[in-house]
Amino acid sequence: MADRYLRFTATAPGRFLTRRLGLPQPATLRRWSPEHPGLDGPLLHLTAGTSALDLAPVLDRTGLPAGDRDPAAVVLDATGVRDVAALAEVHAALHPVVRSVRAGGRVVVLGAPLDPDDHHQSAAQQALEGFTRSLGKEIGRGRTVNLVRLDDARAAESTLRFLLSPKSAYVSGQVVHVAGHEPTAPEDWSRPLAGRTALVTGAARGIGEAVATTLARDGAHVVVLDVPQAEADARRVAERLGGTALLLDVTAADAGARIAAALPDGLDVLVHNAGITRDRRLVNMPAERWSPVLEVNLASVLRITDELFAAGTLRPGGRVVATASIAGLAGNAGQTNYAASKAGIVGLVRALAPRALAEHAVTVNAVAPGFIETAMTAAIPLFIREAGRRMNSLAQGGQPVDVAETTAWLAHPASGGVNGQVVRVCGQSLLGA
């Protein structure tokens, strides 16, 4: 459903009226397209504290020219901030330039891992989180602000390329940890998944279809998995993408075995996207509305993941990306079942990620969408829908492609240093973010 308020505020009368009334003024976000794959404008590289990072080669490869006038992106290297006094350098670096960042621009703050043996360093570095999230809520004009914790610039290249591009238009106020890791750079950064196989559950429509489309754009052979009732849509999507349709119910006892049998040569990217809602307040929620949500959204994810690891279907260097939700992080009235299932995904990711990496060389992460414009959200009553759209720093709903682009970054072969992360795709929701 079209966001008529967003369209209205893009007109001169709309800007005038909403400004006079103090109403939100969302900026039209520019997302990735073949015609405009990058940001328009230079990148400004700043430093606070004394840094040991060799950032220049990585930033050069983003394709953004260096410059300090009207930057499209600002990268502040604050990895050397080790005490409260050094935080003044963060203010001194960004205070003069924030206003000049172009509409739809990016601010990325680089921080260091917290040092458990130095509480002064940990305090100063933790302070960067509050700073980054607050700046994201006030910067406006469709600009985003994120924090990346790292100790090796090379391991963060895929993350920096993502955050410094139109692909991250709806990702703001996030903290991403990148561990030291020897990156696997693709031969072609425009098709990083070439020669790889990806399976997306619930891929016949909505967010799942967008994820499948984006992974195919990046070169993957995509297996479009959905229930038999969605056969026509699943086959349509698979044919359009040059992929394969796989029809089965993820809650079936033999779902994992059937997936493994359909992929005798193995799997590189597993995206758990299938999900359902059965909303009702707990006092009015019978067991038949509770159980299916937990079974589809959580139990099937656990079961299929375990079975594919046990069968050796997930190849070394593989990626598992599961779909959580900000409802699982902040809660939502009328969704105790859904929020429980999505919070369970977070627990799965945090517990499985280190073991999967150590035992199988596979990373495990999650995306947590906020208000995304889909057929499901279009059915929400008008005033609740409008509140969902406006209650984030970008004052608008996201698009399925925003979730897809974030999934594609986590699925990237050079994203091996990103593990155990839950990344919200919510425009920096003003609640629970």
UniProtKB/TrEMBL annotation:
- Name the Pfam families for this protein: adh_short_C2 (PF13561)
Superkingdom to which the source organism belongs: Bacteria
- Which parts form a coiled-coil structure per UniProt? none
Q: Where in this chain does the record put each Ketoreductase domain?
A: 196-370
Task: Report the SUPFAM superfamilies cross-referenced here.
Answer: NAD(P)-binding Rossmann-fold domains
**Which family does the entry's similarity section mention?**
Belongs to the short-chain dehydrogenases/reductases (SDR) family.
- NCBIfam families documented for this protein: PRK08261.1
Q: What is this protein called?
A: 3-oxoacyl-ACP reductase
Source organism of this protein record: Streptomyces thermoviolaceus subsp. thermoviolaceus
